[in-house]
Batch of 2 targets.
Target 1
Amino acid sequence: MLQPIYDEILGRNPGEAEFHQATRELLDSLGPVVARHPEYTDAGIIRRICEPERQIIFRVPWVDDAGQVQLNRGFRVEFNSTLGPYKGGLRFHPSVYLGIVKFLGFEQIFKNALTGMPIGGGKGGSDFDPKGRSDAEIMRFCQSFMTELYRHIGEYTDVPAGDIGVGGREIGYLFGQYKRITNRYESGVLTGKGISWGGSLVRTEATGYGTVYFANEILKNAGDSFDGKSVVVSGSGNVAIHAAEKVAALGGRVIACSDSSGYVVDEAGIDLDLLKEVKEVRRERISAYAEARGGSARFVTDGAVWDVPCDIALPCATQNELDEKHAVALVGNGCAVVAEGANMPCTPDAVRVFADAGVTFAPGKAANAGGVATSALEMQQNASRDSWSFAHTEERLEQIMIGIHARCLETADAYGAPGNYAAGANIGGFIKVADAMLALGVI
Ligand code: NDP
Ligand code: 2IT
């Protein structure tokens, strides 16, 4: 019954493979929902939810340190504002094109709904490659990007944040330029800000911590814990580093992590201070970690980080980084839980391998929702001109993740898919948005 809707998506959005993948993955869960709720079909909810409310594409010219004019393309897809202002990150990576931004914006709708916070879904970014660029070049790029983007965003309209290639440094330059152009100190227009200029404690850590809180709920549900577990994390950016930090705090041992150049295995457990120094301060490749660590660590370029035997896998790098053969390797090595810190890192074939093998799989739209949820807490603090303690904010984050976990399980149960977190997340997020769309009429 949903095939005609998927065919329509393929026809309307040619060449956008990641967007097709994300919509298909949602539609695959919605069969029991449309059977029980004909009113959604009558109101065209699914067709409307798959069509962005607005898509903005713009030119981003800037001058590099050698005085050469460089040209990039900027995007902001304002996907769905039913529950609140569009909310979602900005990604700066050479692979960015409309199909990636649309897949991310689409995921964001349902993820944001699951948090229970009043935020709609959106995403943006650019094909700009920050690697090897000086601070001055990053600043000029961010200023040019915001010189166009500013007219589309606002604390009640659209609130960007970070994603791959966009962290505290970039949010600073973006906020500075927004403030300058608008002559307004509108803190709530961006999240992920520095603590002294409107940011929230815990936002930096929130996505990684939240993913581990979610995985911890899965383990608790099975009468288990992180204590003594070996864990493999992919990536070594914001999400990966903070996921590793929380795993260690809960008694687990992170034995491998990666970047796009390869991976490191460190059986003694990744030294997080050293990893942060290498990746966040020196901005070097992951091999520099193994060189500095010596003895227990080795840098590997063959195969994938998923070849390292582990109890729990946390993919925290990028979309489609864990495919069928990686899933088979993980299953063969006894991995029991996979929780996605990244957005859509597991391919549909990999997810099927996990399901067949009885591996518990937590999809990104549930497991990595702690980042955007804490962004919503940052918006709350900005709106009330307040700032909360680390402990209070982290407690809110943990409760939100526990709540999302429970909602996934309850919804999966209610729709005949007990224990299926992907079905629970898709259906739970969808129904929340669909009911509100019904109330708001055909818009
Ligand atoms: P960062 O830029 O901080 O780190 C990204 C990491 O992933 C780096 O180690 C990077 O390696 C690796 N990576 C990126 N692209 C590729 C690629 N094509 N192949 C192999 N490795 C790659 O980003 P984040 O940690 O913020 O984001 C990671 C994931 O988490 C993304 O999927 C993002 O959408 C998702 N996410 C992020 C949230 C946040 O709050 N930041 C919230 C929710 C989800 P290299 O440096 O070599 O490129
Ligand atoms: O994918 C994501 O949820 C993010 N990159 C965070 C979005 C946000 O607005 O904090």
Target 2
Amino acid sequence: MDTSLPVVRSVCDLRARVADWRAQGLRVALVPTMGALHDGHLALVRRAGELADRVVASVFVNPTQFAPHEDFDRYPRDEAGDSAKLASAGCHLLYAPSVRAMYPDGFATSVAVAGPARGLCADSRPHFFGGVAVVVTKLFLQALPDVAVFGEKDYQQLQVIRRFTRDLDIPVRVEGLPTVREADGLAMSSRNAYLTPDERARAPELQRALSAAAAALAGGVEAAPVLEEVRHRLAAAGFGRVDYVELRDADTLEPLTRADGPARLLAAVWLGKARLLDNVPVAAG
Ligand code: PAF
């Protein structure tokens, strides 16, 4: 199998490739990533290949979505490995710009997001969604794809992207794909690499606790005691700080006290050096 994948690093080269495809009447999909690719990312690429004729994957560790004390410097990077994985999943082009190409000297623009960007991850990472909004807006305008595919693992991020894409009339369809999990239920994430073997063995308890809570909440019961039970289970399993465990409206992410319409149960919790995110759907009671 040919594992070499063409790579472009400038907006100009990216647009030339996409223009060439468009001239042939081909549909284009974009899969934005920060690299360190796992099977969850590759599922996004395969889904993109079902939705379009050509798939571009971007690999860019975006500095504006990290706070100075966060893991930007030690975030795993492996462009050669990523490129081979993307090729095997049917990707046609890797877009890997430098930080300087994305944020040239004098860069001074922000994309302010509210609505679903309030609370949850924004409480502990206040800079995060602004950084994501800037980079994803840039990637959309650089590639001008027909469709872009994101994972539901980062559910709040997905809803924020859907919101600003609609609000700014960006002509890109945003497609979400259900979370891809390891055999034991742990949501796939590049940051799972930070877990020690002992922590890795405990980590699936997050998904188990959320699934049990989602089943209870589907009866329309009051959420607070159910959420408290999740916190107890996580503490008993040796997890660290719980940033949040919350029940939210599945679309707007407004807080809910019970699931009386389509809802989502979302959590962010620390285990050693890894901040694990997960979420599950909750059927209306
Ligand atoms: O989910 C990610 O990997 C990143 O937040 C994204 C969407 C590629 C923006 O940098």
